[in-house]
Specification:
Largest sheet: none
Number of helices: 6
Order of helices and strands: HHHHHH
Strand content: under 5%
Distance between the termini: 15 Å
Oligomer: single chain
Shape: globular
Length: 133
């Protein structure tokens, strides 16, 4: 069984990730009249933050501080590079709302920058949660 502080950190990471996920869905699905730049890349920033928080929940307090952000950055890079792979069924799924939200539609290297920015911006929260363990 997880120690109390580890359980607390896990729950805080997951709770924060869920909040970021809800913000991301609102960002993508609710018309707010934002300029295209912010609409396109703001969701990516939120997605990167969510990935960091989920990885932080999974890895817990690793010995080295850089493991979680590096793993999150690698996952974000892999997710964007996965968009370069095309198969008929996969491309058909990408045209649905669920497919667009989960996988994205087209490769854009600037999305990687947005994801990594989200990871960097979420690091203080991650380290604050981690410090409490």
């Amino acid at each position: 069984m997880m120690a109390t502080s580890s359980r607390r950190a896990f729950l805080l990471h997951i709770g924060a990730a869920l909040i970021v996920m809800i913000c991301g869905l609102v960002w993508r699905l609710v018309p707010m009249g934002l300029p295209g730049f912010f609409l396109n890349y703001g969701g990516g920033v939120l997605w990167g933050a969510m990935v960091l928080l989920i990885v932080g929940a999974i890895l817990g307090k690793s010995e080295r501080w850089w493991v979680t952000p590096l793993a999150a950055a690698a996952i974000a890079l892999a997710a964007e590079l996965f968009r370069l792979y095309h198969a008929p069924a996969l491309d058909a799924f990408r045209t649905t709302l669920a497919g667009a939200l989960l996988l994205g539609r087209i490769f854009n290297p600037w999305n990687i920058v947005a994801y990594w920015l989200g990871i960097v911006l979420a690091l203080p929260l991650h380290f604050w949660i981690r410090k409490g363990q």
